[in-house]
Design goal:
Blueprint: E1 14-17, H1 19-37, E2 47-50, E3 56-59, H2 62-68, H3 77-89, H4 94-113, H5 118-139, E4 141-142, H6 148-163, H7 172-184, E5 195-201, E6 209-211, E7 213-217, E8 231-233, E9 236-240, H8 260-283, E10 288-291, H9 297-305, E11 309-311, H10 316-326, E12 330-331, E13 343-344, E14 347-353, E15 356-362, E16 370-376, H11 379-401, E17 404-407, H12 411-424, H13 430-442, H14 444-453, H15 457-469, E18 475-478, E19 483-486, E20 493-495, H16 496-514, E21 518-521
Parallel strand pairs: 5-16, 9-10, 9-12, 10-11
Antiparallel strand pairs: 1-21, 2-3, 4-17, 6-16, 7-15, 8-14, 9-13, 14-15, 17-20, 18-19
Helix pairs in contact: 1-4, 2-3, 3-4, 3-16, 4-13, 4-16, 5-12, 5-13, 5-16, 6-7, 6-11, 7-11, 12-13, 12-15, 14-15
Length: 545
Amino acid sequence: MMRPQIIVLKEGTEASQGTSQVVSNINACQVVAEAVRTTLGPRGMDKLMVDGNGKATISNDGATIVKLLDVVHPAAKTLVEIAKSQDAEVGDGTTTVTMLAAELLKQVKTFVEDNVHPQVIVRAYRKATQLALEKIDEIAFSIPRENLVEHRQLLQKCAATTLSSKLVAGQKDFFAKMVVDAVSMLDELLPLNMIGIKKVQGGALEESRLIAGVAFKKTFSYAGFEMQRKKYLKPKIALLNVELELKAEKANAEVRVDSVEEYQNIVDAEWTILYDKLDAIVQSGAKVVLSKLPIGDVATQYFADRDLFCAGRVPEEDLKRTMQACGGAIQTSVQSMTDDVLGMCEIFEEEQIGGERFNLFTGCPQAKTCTLILRGGAEQFIEETERSLHDAIMIVRRAIKNDAVVAGGGAIEMEISKYLRDVSRTIPGKQQILIGAYAKALEIIPRQLCDNAGFDATNILNKLRQKHAQGAKWYGVDINKEDVADNLEACVWEPSIVKKNALTAASEAACLVLSVDETIKNPKSQNTDNRPAPAPMGRGRGRPM
Protein backbone atom coordinates (compact mmCIF):
# COMPACT_ATOMS: atom_id res chain seq x y z
CA MET A 1 0.00 0.00 0.00
CA MET A 2 1.41 3.40 -0.96
CA ARG A 3 1.84 6.00 1.73
CA PRO A 4 0.12 9.31 1.10
CA GLN A 5 2.58 12.15 0.39
CA ILE A 6 2.61 14.72 3.18
CA ILE A 7 3.70 18.26 2.33
CA VAL A 8 4.68 20.30 5.38
CA LEU A 9 6.40 23.18 3.61
CA LYS A 10 4.56 26.16 2.23
CA GLU A 11 3.57 25.95 -1.40
CA GLY A 12 6.26 27.29 -3.69
CA THR A 13 9.14 26.32 -1.38
CA GLU A 14 12.18 25.03 -3.27
CA ALA A 15 14.08 22.18 -1.63
CA SER A 16 17.05 20.38 -3.15
CA GLN A 17 19.07 17.78 -1.30
CA GLY A 18 21.52 14.89 -1.44
CA THR A 19 24.69 14.40 -3.44
CA SER A 20 23.54 16.58 -6.34
CA GLN A 21 23.08 19.46 -3.89
CA VAL A 22 26.67 19.16 -2.57
CA VAL A 23 28.03 19.00 -6.13
CA SER A 24 25.93 22.03 -7.09
CA ASN A 25 27.37 23.98 -4.12
CA ILE A 26 30.92 23.01 -5.12
CA ASN A 27 30.28 24.24 -8.68
CA ALA A 28 28.94 27.56 -7.37
CA CYS A 29 32.11 28.10 -5.30
CA GLN A 30 34.17 27.34 -8.39
CA VAL A 31 32.54 30.26 -10.21
CA VAL A 32 33.45 32.74 -7.43
CA ALA A 33 37.06 31.51 -7.51
CA GLU A 34 37.12 31.95 -11.29
CA ALA A 35 36.35 35.66 -10.78
CA VAL A 36 39.49 36.26 -8.70
CA ARG A 37 41.76 33.54 -10.10
CA THR A 38 43.60 35.76 -12.60
CA THR A 39 44.41 38.46 -10.04
CA LEU A 40 46.96 36.32 -8.12
CA GLY A 41 50.63 37.21 -8.08
CA PRO A 42 52.91 39.82 -9.65
CA ARG A 43 51.57 39.20 -13.15
CA GLY A 44 47.94 39.09 -12.05
CA MET A 45 45.36 41.11 -13.98
CA ASP A 46 43.00 43.66 -12.45
CA LYS A 47 39.21 43.65 -12.52
CA LEU A 48 37.02 46.61 -13.38
CA MET A 49 33.68 46.45 -11.57
CA VAL A 50 30.80 48.84 -12.15
CA ASP A 51 28.07 49.06 -9.53
CA GLY A 52 24.41 49.96 -10.01
CA ASN A 53 25.17 53.68 -9.73
CA GLY A 54 27.78 53.49 -12.48
CA LYS A 55 30.75 53.89 -10.08
CA ALA A 56 33.76 52.07 -11.49
CA THR A 57 36.26 50.29 -9.23
CA ILE A 58 39.54 48.85 -10.51
CA SER A 59 41.09 46.36 -8.12
CA ASN A 60 43.01 43.12 -7.79
CA ASP A 61 42.35 42.74 -4.07
CA GLY A 62 40.36 39.51 -3.64
CA ALA A 63 38.23 40.83 -0.77
CA THR A 64 37.31 44.02 -2.66
CA ILE A 65 36.30 42.03 -5.76
CA VAL A 66 34.14 39.46 -3.97
CA LYS A 67 32.49 42.21 -1.89
CA LEU A 68 31.50 44.04 -5.08
CA LEU A 69 30.26 40.87 -6.78
CA ASP A 70 26.58 40.50 -6.08
CA VAL A 71 26.72 36.82 -5.09
CA VAL A 72 23.25 35.29 -4.75
CA HIS A 73 24.05 31.59 -4.35
CA PRO A 74 23.93 30.79 -0.60
CA ALA A 75 26.89 28.36 -0.63
CA ALA A 76 29.08 30.65 -2.74
CA LYS A 77 28.52 33.40 -0.16
CA THR A 78 30.74 31.43 2.26
CA LEU A 79 33.70 32.20 -0.03
CA VAL A 80 32.83 35.89 0.13
CA GLU A 81 32.77 35.65 3.93
CA ILE A 82 36.16 33.92 4.23
CA ALA A 83 37.75 36.51 1.95
CA LYS A 84 36.34 39.20 4.29
CA SER A 85 37.59 37.34 7.38
CA GLN A 86 41.10 37.02 5.91
CA ASP A 87 41.03 40.75 5.12
CA ALA A 88 39.94 41.63 8.64
CA GLU A 89 42.42 39.31 10.36
CA VAL A 90 45.64 39.71 8.34
CA GLY A 91 44.76 42.12 5.54
CA ASP A 92 46.35 40.17 2.68
CA GLY A 93 46.04 36.75 1.05
CA THR A 94 42.37 37.26 0.17
CA THR A 95 42.74 35.87 -3.38
CA THR A 96 44.80 32.95 -2.05
CA VAL A 97 42.18 31.95 0.51
CA THR A 98 39.29 32.11 -1.99
CA MET A 99 41.15 29.99 -4.54
CA LEU A 100 42.35 27.47 -1.97
CA ALA A 101 38.83 26.90 -0.65
CA ALA A 102 37.46 26.39 -4.17
CA GLU A 103 40.32 24.05 -5.12
CA LEU A 104 39.89 21.97 -1.94
CA LEU A 105 36.27 21.45 -3.00
CA LYS A 106 37.17 20.73 -6.61
CA GLN A 107 39.62 17.98 -5.62
CA VAL A 108 36.94 16.04 -3.72
CA LYS A 109 34.11 16.61 -6.18
CA THR A 110 34.65 13.19 -7.81
CA PHE A 111 34.60 11.51 -4.39
CA VAL A 112 31.29 13.18 -3.52
CA GLU A 113 29.85 12.01 -6.87
CA ASP A 114 31.05 8.48 -6.02
CA ASN A 115 29.05 8.68 -2.77
CA VAL A 116 31.93 9.06 -0.31
CA HIS A 117 30.24 10.51 2.76
CA PRO A 118 31.05 14.25 3.14
CA GLN A 119 31.83 13.81 6.85
CA VAL A 120 34.67 11.40 5.96
CA ILE A 121 36.14 14.12 3.71
CA VAL A 122 35.65 16.80 6.40
CA ARG A 123 37.49 14.66 8.95
CA ALA A 124 40.42 14.10 6.58
CA TYR A 125 40.61 17.81 5.70
CA ARG A 126 40.65 18.84 9.36
CA LYS A 127 43.50 16.42 10.01
CA ALA A 128 45.42 17.68 6.94
CA THR A 129 44.98 21.31 8.05
CA GLN A 130 46.33 20.47 11.50
CA LEU A 131 49.39 18.76 9.98
CA ALA A 132 49.95 21.71 7.61
CA LEU A 133 49.84 24.28 10.44
CA GLU A 134 52.33 22.26 12.49
CA LYS A 135 54.64 22.06 9.45
CA ILE A 136 54.51 25.85 8.94
CA ASP A 137 55.42 26.45 12.59
CA GLU A 138 58.26 23.96 12.27
CA ILE A 139 59.92 25.45 9.17
CA ALA A 140 59.12 29.19 9.54
CA PHE A 141 62.13 31.30 10.51
CA SER A 142 62.32 34.57 12.38
CA ILE A 143 64.84 37.33 12.79
CA PRO A 144 65.44 38.44 16.38
CA ARG A 145 63.96 41.86 17.13
CA GLU A 146 67.13 42.93 18.91
CA ASN A 147 68.85 43.22 15.53
CA LEU A 148 67.01 46.37 14.45
CA VAL A 149 68.57 46.66 10.98
CA GLU A 150 67.74 43.09 9.98
CA HIS A 151 64.30 43.27 11.56
CA ARG A 152 63.53 46.40 9.56
CA GLN A 153 64.73 44.72 6.37
CA LEU A 154 62.47 41.75 7.13
CA LEU A 155 59.49 44.11 7.41
CA GLN A 156 60.41 45.89 4.19
CA LYS A 157 60.73 42.61 2.30
CA CYS A 158 57.33 41.45 3.56
CA ALA A 159 55.76 44.76 2.45
CA ALA A 160 57.51 44.58 -0.95
CA THR A 161 56.24 40.99 -1.49
CA THR A 162 52.69 42.15 -0.80
CA LEU A 163 53.00 45.15 -3.12
CA SER A 164 54.60 43.15 -5.95
CA SER A 165 51.18 41.79 -6.94
CA LYS A 166 49.49 45.21 -6.82
CA LEU A 167 48.99 48.03 -9.26
CA VAL A 168 51.90 49.92 -7.67
CA ALA A 169 54.39 47.05 -8.15
CA GLY A 170 56.72 49.35 -10.12
CA GLN A 171 57.21 51.53 -7.03
CA LYS A 172 57.13 48.71 -4.47
CA ASP A 173 60.49 49.56 -2.86
CA PHE A 174 59.51 53.22 -2.47
CA PHE A 175 56.18 52.33 -0.86
CA ALA A 176 57.53 49.39 1.20
CA LYS A 177 59.95 51.79 2.95
CA MET A 178 57.16 54.34 3.44
CA VAL A 179 54.79 51.75 4.94
CA VAL A 180 57.44 50.43 7.38
CA ASP A 181 58.25 54.03 8.42
CA ALA A 182 54.53 54.71 8.93
CA VAL A 183 53.89 51.63 11.09
CA SER A 184 57.10 52.27 13.08
CA MET A 185 55.68 55.63 14.21
CA LEU A 186 52.70 54.03 15.99
CA ASP A 187 52.60 52.87 19.61
CA GLU A 188 52.76 49.22 20.73
CA LEU A 189 49.11 48.50 19.90
CA LEU A 190 49.66 49.62 16.28
CA PRO A 191 46.16 51.13 15.82
CA LEU A 192 45.23 51.31 12.13
CA ASN A 193 43.16 54.49 12.54
CA MET A 194 46.27 56.39 13.60
CA ILE A 195 47.63 56.16 10.04
CA GLY A 196 45.71 58.77 8.09
CA ILE A 197 45.56 58.36 4.32
CA LYS A 198 44.76 61.45 2.24
CA LYS A 199 44.37 61.33 -1.54
CA VAL A 200 45.32 64.21 -3.83
CA GLN A 201 44.78 63.81 -7.56
CA GLY A 202 47.57 64.89 -9.89
CA GLY A 203 51.31 64.41 -9.78
CA ALA A 204 53.34 61.22 -9.93
CA LEU A 205 53.13 58.29 -7.52
CA GLU A 206 56.65 59.06 -6.28
CA GLU A 207 55.41 62.44 -5.09
CA SER A 208 53.44 60.65 -2.37
CA ARG A 209 54.66 61.71 1.08
CA LEU A 210 54.71 60.46 4.60
CA ILE A 211 54.11 63.19 7.18
CA ALA A 212 55.43 62.35 10.65
CA GLY A 213 52.45 63.91 12.34
CA VAL A 214 49.03 65.06 11.19
CA ALA A 215 47.96 66.54 7.88
CA PHE A 216 44.45 67.39 6.75
CA LYS A 217 42.88 69.41 3.98
CA LYS A 218 42.24 73.08 4.65
CA THR A 219 38.76 73.32 6.10
CA PHE A 220 35.92 75.60 5.05
CA SER A 221 37.00 79.15 5.83
CA TYR A 222 35.34 82.54 6.16
CA ALA A 223 36.45 86.07 5.32
CA GLY A 224 39.49 87.09 7.31
CA PHE A 225 41.19 83.74 6.73
CA GLU A 226 43.61 85.27 4.18
CA MET A 227 44.96 87.63 6.84
CA GLN A 228 46.01 84.81 9.15
CA ARG A 229 49.59 83.68 9.32
CA LYS A 230 50.19 80.28 7.69
CA LYS A 231 53.29 79.16 9.58
CA TYR A 232 54.11 79.04 13.29
CA LEU A 233 57.09 77.63 15.18
CA LYS A 234 56.32 75.78 18.43
CA PRO A 235 52.70 76.97 18.61
CA LYS A 236 50.29 75.97 21.35
CA ILE A 237 47.27 74.27 19.86
CA ALA A 238 43.71 74.55 21.21
CA LEU A 239 41.44 71.62 20.33
CA LEU A 240 37.79 72.52 20.75
CA ASN A 241 34.33 71.12 20.34
CA VAL A 242 32.80 74.59 20.61
CA GLU A 243 30.89 76.66 18.09
CA LEU A 244 32.42 80.12 17.70
CA GLU A 245 29.67 81.78 15.74
CA LEU A 246 26.77 84.18 16.29
CA LYS A 247 23.52 82.31 16.39
CA ALA A 248 20.46 83.78 14.70
CA GLU A 249 18.12 83.40 17.67
CA LYS A 250 14.96 83.86 15.63
CA ALA A 251 15.12 80.17 14.79
CA ASN A 252 15.92 78.96 18.28
CA ALA A 253 14.00 81.04 20.76
CA GLU A 254 11.09 83.40 21.21
CA VAL A 255 11.74 86.54 23.23
CA ARG A 256 9.06 89.11 23.97
CA VAL A 257 10.40 92.63 24.33
CA ASP A 258 8.63 95.89 25.14
CA SER A 259 11.26 98.36 24.02
CA VAL A 260 14.17 98.81 21.63
CA GLU A 261 16.56 99.03 24.61
CA GLU A 262 15.63 95.52 25.75
CA TYR A 263 16.18 94.19 22.24
CA GLN A 264 19.55 95.96 22.16
CA ASN A 265 20.48 94.33 25.48
CA ILE A 266 19.75 90.89 24.04
CA VAL A 267 21.89 91.56 20.96
CA ASP A 268 24.69 92.98 23.14
CA ALA A 269 24.56 89.93 25.41
CA GLU A 270 24.94 87.68 22.38
CA TRP A 271 28.01 89.57 21.20
CA THR A 272 29.45 89.67 24.71
CA ILE A 273 29.15 85.87 25.07
CA LEU A 274 30.97 85.35 21.76
CA TYR A 275 33.71 87.91 22.53
CA ASP A 276 34.24 86.43 26.01
CA LYS A 277 34.82 83.02 24.44
CA LEU A 278 37.23 84.43 21.86
CA ASP A 279 39.11 86.44 24.48
CA ALA A 280 39.49 83.36 26.71
CA ILE A 281 41.10 81.48 23.79
CA VAL A 282 43.49 84.36 23.01
CA GLN A 283 44.44 84.71 26.71
CA SER A 284 45.31 80.99 26.89
CA GLY A 285 48.32 81.61 24.64
CA ALA A 286 47.12 79.24 21.90
CA LYS A 287 48.30 80.16 18.41
CA VAL A 288 46.40 77.50 16.45
CA VAL A 289 42.69 76.93 17.14
CA LEU A 290 41.00 73.82 15.76
CA SER A 291 37.32 73.12 16.31
CA LYS A 292 35.04 70.28 15.28
CA LEU A 293 32.19 72.80 15.03
CA PRO A 294 32.04 75.89 12.78
CA ILE A 295 34.15 78.98 13.46
CA GLY A 296 32.28 81.95 11.96
CA ASP A 297 33.50 85.08 10.16
CA VAL A 298 33.53 87.29 13.27
CA ALA A 299 35.78 84.82 15.08
CA THR A 300 38.01 84.38 12.02
CA GLN A 301 38.56 88.16 11.77
CA TYR A 302 39.10 88.42 15.55
CA PHE A 303 41.79 85.71 15.48
CA ALA A 304 43.44 87.20 12.37
CA ASP A 305 43.78 90.59 14.12
CA ARG A 306 45.50 88.90 17.10
CA ASP A 307 47.86 86.66 15.05
CA LEU A 308 46.09 83.35 15.60
CA PHE A 309 45.29 80.67 13.04
CA CYS A 310 41.89 78.97 13.20
CA ALA A 311 40.15 76.11 11.38
CA GLY A 312 36.55 75.08 12.00
CA ARG A 313 34.64 71.98 10.92
CA VAL A 314 37.72 69.78 11.30
CA PRO A 315 36.69 66.10 10.81
CA GLU A 316 36.54 64.26 14.13
CA GLU A 317 39.12 61.61 13.19
CA ASP A 318 41.63 64.33 12.20
CA LEU A 319 41.00 66.19 15.46
CA LYS A 320 41.56 63.01 17.46
CA ARG A 321 44.75 62.23 15.56
CA THR A 322 46.00 65.78 16.22
CA MET A 323 45.33 65.22 19.91
CA GLN A 324 47.27 61.91 19.84
CA ALA A 325 50.22 63.55 18.11
CA CYS A 326 50.40 66.95 19.79
CA GLY A 327 49.00 66.14 23.22
CA GLY A 328 46.34 68.23 24.94
CA ALA A 329 42.65 67.43 25.16
CA ILE A 330 39.51 68.31 23.23
CA GLN A 331 37.61 70.96 25.20
CA THR A 332 33.87 71.48 25.20
CA SER A 333 34.14 74.88 26.89
CA VAL A 334 36.73 77.67 26.83
CA GLN A 335 36.64 78.46 30.54
CA SER A 336 39.68 76.50 31.73
CA MET A 337 42.20 76.69 28.90
CA THR A 338 45.29 75.79 30.92
CA ASP A 339 48.60 74.67 29.40
CA ASP A 340 47.95 70.99 30.13
CA VAL A 341 44.92 70.89 27.79
CA LEU A 342 46.76 72.65 24.95
CA GLY A 343 48.71 70.66 22.38
CA MET A 344 52.16 71.52 21.06
CA CYS A 345 54.20 70.82 17.92
CA GLU A 346 57.49 72.03 16.43
CA ILE A 347 56.13 73.45 13.18
CA PHE A 348 52.62 74.18 11.98
CA GLU A 349 52.28 75.28 8.38
CA GLU A 350 49.82 75.39 5.54
CA GLU A 351 51.21 74.00 2.32
CA GLN A 352 50.04 73.56 -1.24
CA ILE A 353 50.01 69.89 -2.28
CA GLY A 354 48.78 69.44 -5.83
CA GLY A 355 45.50 71.28 -6.20
CA GLU A 356 44.76 71.21 -2.46
CA ARG A 357 45.98 73.20 0.52
CA PHE A 358 46.93 71.12 3.56
CA ASN A 359 47.48 71.98 7.21
CA LEU A 360 50.57 70.10 8.43
CA PHE A 361 51.57 69.52 12.07
CA THR A 362 55.12 68.17 12.25
CA GLY A 363 57.69 67.56 14.98
CA CYS A 364 55.01 66.41 17.39
CA PRO A 365 56.24 65.44 20.87
CA GLN A 366 53.95 62.40 21.17
CA ALA A 367 53.98 61.49 17.46
CA LYS A 368 52.10 58.20 17.67
CA THR A 369 50.39 58.97 14.41
CA CYS A 370 51.32 59.75 10.82
CA THR A 371 49.67 60.68 7.53
CA LEU A 372 50.26 59.27 4.07
CA ILE A 373 49.49 61.73 1.27
CA LEU A 374 48.98 59.77 -1.94
CA ARG A 375 49.39 61.33 -5.36
CA GLY A 376 48.46 59.88 -8.73
CA GLY A 377 46.39 60.32 -11.86
CA ALA A 378 42.91 58.86 -12.06
CA GLU A 379 40.71 58.66 -8.97
CA GLN A 380 40.33 54.87 -9.34
CA PHE A 381 44.11 54.52 -9.50
CA ILE A 382 44.63 56.42 -6.23
CA GLU A 383 41.89 54.38 -4.56
CA GLU A 384 43.56 51.13 -5.64
CA THR A 385 46.90 52.49 -4.34
CA GLU A 386 45.19 53.10 -1.00
CA ARG A 387 43.84 49.52 -0.94
CA SER A 388 47.30 48.17 -1.83
CA LEU A 389 48.96 50.18 0.95
CA HIS A 390 46.28 49.01 3.40
CA ASP A 391 47.30 45.41 2.63
CA ALA A 392 50.99 46.26 3.07
CA ILE A 393 50.34 48.12 6.36
CA MET A 394 48.37 45.13 7.70
CA ILE A 395 51.18 42.74 6.71
CA VAL A 396 53.84 44.89 8.42
CA ARG A 397 51.68 45.09 11.58
CA ARG A 398 51.32 41.30 11.57
CA ALA A 399 55.04 40.78 10.96
CA ILE A 400 55.90 43.07 13.92
CA LYS A 401 53.53 41.22 16.25
CA ASN A 402 54.41 37.81 14.83
CA ASP A 403 57.86 37.88 13.29
CA ALA A 404 57.95 34.34 11.85
CA VAL A 405 58.15 34.42 8.03
CA VAL A 406 58.06 31.88 5.21
CA ALA A 407 59.04 32.08 1.53
CA GLY A 408 56.24 33.15 -0.83
CA GLY A 409 55.83 32.56 -4.55
CA GLY A 410 54.25 29.14 -4.03
CA ALA A 411 57.27 27.79 -2.08
CA ILE A 412 55.50 27.16 1.22
CA GLU A 413 52.49 25.58 -0.54
CA MET A 414 54.73 23.16 -2.46
CA GLU A 415 56.59 22.21 0.72
CA ILE A 416 53.37 21.51 2.66
CA SER A 417 52.00 19.64 -0.37
CA LYS A 418 55.07 17.37 -0.46
CA TYR A 419 54.92 16.85 3.32
CA LEU A 420 51.20 15.91 3.28
CA ARG A 421 51.76 13.48 0.40
CA ASP A 422 54.49 11.75 2.41
CA VAL A 423 52.29 11.62 5.52
CA SER A 424 49.25 10.35 3.59
CA ARG A 425 51.16 7.25 2.48
CA THR A 426 51.54 6.21 6.11
CA ILE A 427 47.77 6.38 6.76
CA PRO A 428 45.50 3.45 5.83
CA GLY A 429 41.99 3.73 4.42
CA LYS A 430 40.13 6.52 2.62
CA GLN A 431 41.96 9.23 4.54
CA GLN A 432 45.11 8.45 2.55
CA ILE A 433 43.48 9.52 -0.72
CA LEU A 434 41.70 12.52 0.84
CA ILE A 435 44.83 13.95 2.48
CA GLY A 436 46.52 13.39 -0.91
CA ALA A 437 43.70 15.45 -2.47
CA TYR A 438 44.38 18.26 0.05
CA ALA A 439 48.06 18.13 -0.93
CA LYS A 440 47.17 18.35 -4.63
CA ALA A 441 44.82 21.31 -3.97
CA LEU A 442 47.70 23.32 -2.48
CA GLU A 443 49.49 23.21 -5.84
CA ILE A 444 46.86 25.57 -7.26
CA ILE A 445 48.80 28.58 -5.88
CA PRO A 446 52.11 28.02 -7.77
CA ARG A 447 50.13 26.73 -10.78
CA GLN A 448 48.04 29.90 -10.94
CA LEU A 449 51.13 32.11 -10.49
CA CYS A 450 52.55 30.42 -13.62
CA ASP A 451 49.29 30.65 -15.56
CA ASN A 452 48.92 34.36 -14.79
CA ALA A 453 52.46 35.03 -15.99
CA GLY A 454 51.94 32.96 -19.16
CA PHE A 455 54.45 30.26 -18.16
CA ASP A 456 54.18 26.52 -18.81
CA ALA A 457 52.68 25.56 -15.43
CA THR A 458 53.14 21.79 -15.80
CA ASN A 459 56.83 22.15 -16.61
CA ILE A 460 57.53 24.49 -13.68
CA LEU A 461 55.48 22.41 -11.21
CA ASN A 462 57.45 19.30 -12.21
CA LYS A 463 60.68 21.18 -11.49
CA LEU A 464 59.30 22.36 -8.13
CA ARG A 465 58.21 18.84 -7.14
CA GLN A 466 61.69 17.58 -8.00
CA LYS A 467 63.41 20.32 -5.96
CA HIS A 468 61.17 19.81 -2.92
CA ALA A 469 61.66 16.02 -3.11
CA GLN A 470 65.41 16.69 -2.96
CA GLY A 471 64.92 18.74 0.20
CA ALA A 472 65.12 22.28 -1.27
CA LYS A 473 62.17 23.47 0.82
CA TRP A 474 62.15 27.15 -0.14
CA TYR A 475 62.00 26.72 -3.91
CA GLY A 476 59.10 28.55 -5.55
CA VAL A 477 58.19 30.22 -8.84
CA ASP A 478 60.60 32.88 -10.11
CA ILE A 479 58.41 35.25 -12.10
CA ASN A 480 61.28 37.26 -13.58
CA LYS A 481 63.26 34.35 -15.06
CA GLU A 482 60.37 31.99 -15.91
CA ASP A 483 61.97 29.34 -13.76
CA VAL A 484 62.17 28.09 -10.18
CA ALA A 485 64.35 29.76 -7.53
CA ASP A 486 65.08 29.79 -3.81
CA ASN A 487 62.54 32.44 -2.76
CA LEU A 488 64.08 32.78 0.69
CA GLU A 489 67.27 34.10 -0.90
CA ALA A 490 65.26 36.08 -3.44
CA CYS A 491 63.60 37.87 -0.47
CA VAL A 492 60.04 36.91 -1.44
CA TRP A 493 58.84 36.69 2.15
CA GLU A 494 55.43 36.50 3.76
CA PRO A 495 54.49 36.37 7.45
CA SER A 496 53.66 32.77 8.37
CA ILE A 497 50.46 33.98 10.08
CA VAL A 498 49.07 34.94 6.64
CA LYS A 499 49.51 31.38 5.35
CA LYS A 500 48.24 29.80 8.57
CA ASN A 501 45.12 31.95 8.56
CA ALA A 502 44.55 31.29 4.84
CA LEU A 503 44.80 27.51 5.28
CA THR A 504 42.54 27.50 8.33
CA ALA A 505 39.89 29.72 6.73
CA ALA A 506 39.95 27.89 3.37
CA SER A 507 39.68 24.52 5.06
CA GLU A 508 36.82 25.72 7.28
CA ALA A 509 34.93 27.08 4.29
CA ALA A 510 35.42 23.86 2.30
CA CYS A 511 34.21 21.74 5.24
CA LEU A 512 31.21 24.02 5.71
CA VAL A 513 30.16 23.73 2.05
CA LEU A 514 30.66 19.95 2.10
CA SER A 515 28.54 19.49 5.20
CA VAL A 516 25.49 21.19 3.65
CA ASP A 517 23.33 18.62 1.84
CA GLU A 518 20.03 20.45 1.56
CA THR A 519 18.94 23.94 0.64
CA ILE A 520 15.42 25.13 1.36
CA LYS A 521 14.26 28.38 -0.18
CA ASN A 522 11.11 29.94 1.19
CA PRO A 523 8.91 31.73 -1.32
CA LYS A 524 8.84 35.49 -0.97
CA SER A 525 5.77 36.38 0.96
CA GLN A 526 4.69 39.66 2.45
CA ASN A 527 2.51 38.21 5.18
CA THR A 528 4.12 34.94 6.26
CA ASP A 529 2.04 34.19 9.34
CA ASN A 530 -1.72 33.90 9.57
CA ARG A 531 -2.38 37.26 11.16
CA PRO A 532 -5.00 39.32 9.37
CA ALA A 533 -3.57 41.90 7.03
CA PRO A 534 -3.49 45.45 8.44
CA ALA A 535 -6.35 47.75 7.46
CA PRO A 536 -5.55 50.07 4.55
CA MET A 537 -4.32 53.52 5.55
CA GLY A 538 -6.81 56.34 5.84
CA ARG A 539 -9.82 54.33 6.93
CA GLY A 540 -10.70 55.03 10.58
CA ARG A 541 -12.79 52.75 12.79
CA GLY A 542 -16.52 53.02 12.10
CA ARG A 543 -16.01 56.13 10.00
CA PRO A 544 -16.94 55.94 6.32
CA MET A 545 -14.39 57.09 3.81
